[in-house]
Amino acid sequence: LMDSPRTATYLRAGDWINKNIPVGSTIGIDFGTDYPHVEQVPPFHFIDYQIIAGSANWDIAKGVPEYVISSDNPVCIAGFHYGYPTPDFLERYSLLAEFKSMAYPVAWGRNPFSWVNFTYRVFKRKPMI
Description:
Largest sheet: 5 strands, mixed
Strand order of the largest sheet: 2-1-3-7-6
Strand content: 15-25%
Helix content: 10-25%
Shape: globular
Order of helices and strands: HEEEEEHEE
Structural class: alpha/beta
Oligomer: single chain
């Protein structure tokens, strides 16, 4: 139930990315890997985009990447503190979409070892001046 397409945050985020981010756009991810893992990164059509994995490869001052995907998992660290963007990041990027977990009975809890229902955020680069 928690990972059904209707409720799982990473599935909803992946679907939104496919429908709303233009093909060919640069997307920055920093989930502690050098390439997108579908168990960590929302599953979108990776091949349709220019993925820039690892924040060390970003040049935020020059506007690269155009989009950034983050989650509230502490592994996602670039320009963020436990999934929340730092002020310098927000000077250059604005929040486009946020996918939060639906409320569940407390007894169900949330599996801390699963990426299914972390909050995912998609940011877009602000126009460069």
